[in-house]
Amino acid sequence: MSLFDLSGKVAVVTGATKGIGLGIVQALAEAGAKVVLSSRDQSACDEVAADLDKQYGRGEVIAKGVACDLDKLEDVERLAEPAREAFGGVDILVAGGSKGIGKAAALLLAGEKCPPGDRSPWSGPEGETTHDER
After folding, report:
1. Which residue in 78, 52, 87, 70 sits closest to 14, CA to CA?
2. pLDDT above 50 for 16
3. Superfamily the domain 10-109 falls into
4. Is it the case that residue 3 has pLDDT exceeding 50?
5. β-pairing verdict for 34-39 and 92-94
6. pTM, 2 dp
7. Calpha distance 74→113 (Å, rounded)
8. H or E stretch including 48?
9. CA–CA separation, 99 and 14 (whole Å)
């Protein structure tokens, strides 16, 4: 018996190939969510996605693995694409990576653009990604 029914929901989880992040993607998949999971290691992402499909997919693809370095805005942009293309969007965002995900990443996953001059730790004065401001 599941405490939550997340059928029809799509989750993006960073830091999802080991430890707490892995436990989170397993629980989300068990509750019926489709998941896009990430870490910096594509082979680890692929392995976890295949395991989730096998264990919870009931013959369909419910998981996509995407290597992503949260320090690189272009990686974060690439992380959002599979959620939109394969599953239609993002309903749940779990920042399981050790560095968190930041305002710009959350905006990108929601389909928004980070405003020019945003002084979050994710964007520099010309929209460049940087962690120098932390």
Report:
1. 70
2. yes
3. NAD(P)-binding Rossmann-like Domain (3.40.50.720)
4. yes
5. unpaired
6. 0.75
7. 12
8. helix 42-56
9. 10
